[in-house]
Amino acid sequence: MNMKRVVLAFSIIFFIGMATIAVGQDSSFTFPYADESYTKSERVGAEIWFNATAGNERFFTYVYPQRLGVLIDWFGVLSTTERDYRFTRWGLINDPNCCKPGDPNCPAKSLDETYGFDYCPGDETLLNFVGQPGYEDPACSLKDAPLSDKDEHGPNDQRQSACDLRFGTSTGAMGIRKFPNPRFKKEQWVKVNNGKTGTWAGYNAKLQHKDSTQPDSSRVLDASVEPPFLIGLSCGSCHIAFKPLNPPKDPAHPKPENLSGTVGNQYSRFSQILGSGMDPRTIEYQVYGHARPGSVDTSALPNDQINNPGTINAILNFSQRPTFSHDIVKWHKTKQCSGDGNDPNCWCEPGREAKCWERKQKTEDVHQLLKGGEDSIGILEAIQRVYINIGTCSEESWANHLTDMRQLDPTLRGFGQTPFDIGQTRADCAEFRAIEDRLGDLGNFLFSARPTDLYQARNLKSNRDLIEQLDKEFGKGSVDLGKIIFTKNCASCHSSQSGPIDTRDFRARSKKPEDKGIRIDWLGNDQLTPVTEVGTNRARALHSNHITGAVWQEYGSETLRSKSDDPAIKEPSEGGRGFYRNISLLSLWAHAPFMHNNGIGPELCGGHGDQFYNSPYVDFLDEQNIKRMKNSPPCWPFDPSVEGRYKLYKASMHDLLNPDKRVPKVTLFNRDVVIRLFPKVSEGKLERFIDSTIVFPKGTPSARIGNFRHKEFAGDLVLSRVDFGKLESKYVGRYGPEQGKHVANMIRDRAKDLVKNPAFLLKIGAELREIYSNSLMLREDAGHRFGEDLSEKEKNALTAFLATL
Amino acid sequence: MIPIYKLALCSVILSGILGGCGNEQAPDVPFAASGESYASKVDFSKLERDLPLAPLDLMKITPESLEGATQEQVDQIYARLTAGPIPDGPYDGQAFFPKGSSGGARAAEIVGGGLKGFAVNIAKVKLEHIAEAIWKGKVFYRDQSVLRNRINDLSILKPFIGGETESLQKIDVDGKEAWMLFPAKLYCGQSLLDGRRESVIIDYAFTDDLPGYREKPDALAGREGLVIRDEIRMVRPGFYLGRAYMKKVFVLNFTLYNKEVAEKESANFQASGEVQEDCWVGPQRMLAKGK
After folding, report:
1. Residue A347, in any domain of the structure
2. Total tally of structural domains belonging to chain B
3. N or C, fewer C-beta in 10 Å, chain B?
4. What pTM, to 2 d.p., does this model score?
5. Is residue A277 part of a domain?
6. Start-to-end Cα distance in chain B
7. How many domains does chain A have?
8. Domain range holding B18?
9. A contacts of B283 (beta carbons < 8 Å)
10. Diameter of chain A measured on Cα atoms
11. Three-class SS of residue A601?
12. Which of B250, B58, B13 minimizes the C-alpha distance to B242?
């Protein structure tokens, strides 16, 4: 054997060896769902939930910065040298299976080996493929659960390859996954990073703008430099959190048994993470970068110009969650399609046998999901939609349907959203099929999640022992009295049982053997209540992505969209908008602060000196007179301990039941934002350039800008000059003859002012705000005043009782 | 809403310079029906599935015929192209605005806005000529992932250059001398029109680390100037269709043509449809090819 052959043979063995090592190396998913108390399907579902990005690493590496123009500083978030601060700074949960290179027992000895990241299981293979093609994803080794007997596409297993689930390896933060970048060029990387391999400090460097009022640039925007890793998110990135029943002693160093995949991370700061590469003096940062810990605006990417951060829902006892009858148009599994194969409503997957889908209208009982029940075609479809919403198939099927915020011409693509097409995505995107073919496993995993009782968290024998403690704390008989108050005042919305309310046992358990003692009351009826009745900040209820023509149209039912608009709301509310679900109060003690935006209760932060904390406390006279409060209440440092959660619960209950004592909250810009735009107005056939430096001053309410329909505003200003009749017709149609003409005249007058002095742009926008705002309400802690008239004793009693649920 | 961007048919400023006012006919290739509103445009995935362009279709398209197309037709062509190989060598360029568009006036306005902060008397600058200069001709250095623009008439850019011009790099293409300005980086990246596959990106934002960078006038195209970002896809060998953006706002279309490459490689392309793909093509093109 000559030398060449020896080398070749050795290389083959080496690569085969690496491929073998890759199989099953990443065991991070196995906790805490590896034991036999979970079914095989539930375990597979957990594995996917924890690890699968379904390809969104391309979205977060390429589409997000280049097309949407928002930058993530992944190294700033994930640098291994900052590992101990990830929780307090970003709310991220450290992966217990990863280590800092150079630490004792860590296989990696230097930062250069990992490009400055943690070393995690599977990296012994992955790191060899940085800058190389041919990486076999660990998802390829997933051992699927047996296909369900009821699967229409069975009995043969024709599921899409598990490789397309895309697991990569952990970055060291739970749910954030990394993949080797085959385009990486080490020589270029070292040059960009001033001769170093183990840092991204040159790649993510800030470049100061010569004009000090303008934001600095980030080198991340230079897409000619390919980073060593593509970074993606699994569902677990938001949903994995510390177990309320078994929190870690040190949140920076959790153990596997401290983690839950379904409780929801109420400390996570994904708004800040997703804007971490942006200069705080950009409008994107100031509108979207201040969401509270545990909340994120999930319609910031598929932007509908409604600034509405919402909490990550806890997933508990879903089998007891109410369902509702909806008329739905959606795809159903079938064995065959009739006709010549060109039916747009029926499609068979090429290369598979009898694996077909048919789109048809049916009436079905489904869950109402999201804050306002917008996801309403089925829970499995809702799970799949979340993958798309975090970037899966974004290039094949999503990005072209999103709004380009800079496109002001309504005749051009990108001016507004268009509906995402489920059928097209299924045909074109393997990652979609890989998830879709395993939605049953994901559903089984999520349905296995159970409430976390305070008595267990306190290591008490039973709820009776907890009641004793609570009665001691709140006064004798408090829990019993609290139950009476709850029954009378709250249970009509916050109970899912049928029959008379007065006799309900809110902690009753199912006696059916197959239910394994599950609590039968979901403690929320999930019905839709008009936001005007609840009174909480209505921006989230006015979310518009499921209305006809919007990006998630196919995920909303016809029943949802047939709801009429609410005449009590000034803003657009058609198409099923204007509602909040009556949510579950299961394990309420562990999930404060309250409301859809975590707005009622103390503000949370990472501790003293938290760079991201932007106090929302304001002196609030009315919506026009808002000033940042000088001596505002301090924020509460993250404390996931049992007593930490309990204290937060009590303080939040106090604020909930005493609305007049709440300190008003409105998120404000904490920097001046200077924007240079190139808008124009038209005078007849002449198009004029307007000098347009706009300054949004520090103290501007974030929602006021995020909710403003600037495209319609710009279009109307032009219309007022070129076709006033059309403008008048538009507003007469919207407001009636008298008011409509008044509004049209006002727009025309303001357009004239603008031509005289372009500096009036902001002032004019403010004057016309009521016409162009998608949500006028600014207070984030308002509403849900139910219970404010109870006596102090009754409020305490209710607080005590709810802690037992 | 009145299509304001179509009011001024062929800006007086740019007429005759950047095209779009002639009597050219749109390329004789299939297009999907489309209405006025953005919402009425055909989805590119459906377009490509229903009406994929064959090599023969692509051979019918010329830089001149594109000027007879509407913007929607130009977009529909662009979406059915792939990036192809990253070009190498000199290419002639031509910016154009589609039939019936007032894009010329718009481009001039945008250029004017971008010049603020450059301490230049905008009134004295013929804005349209700047656009013409930057998209007139390009030289690709494929191995270095760099591009430089061929400037035929330096006087247009005099207000931005300042100082001596002797040290400026020059090139001779077909016996014509041109100055080499405005370097850009080349890479495969996202299309801002059609995310279903990558385009070749010509990016001017971070060029100050390139050899030969000269702040005046190169910074004009850079991250503190007009923030120009071009994207191109290949119509056929030697012929690329491009879209130019400033600060992420679409400004104009342009073509790039290298006669030598076109003549050498077109016959093989027409026969086989095969072409080297340097960028991510996505799954839909393959489906279309398989039809």
Report:
1. no
2. 1
3. C
4. 0.92
5. no
6. 39
7. 1
8. 4-289
9. 396, 428-430
10. 95
11. coil
12. B250
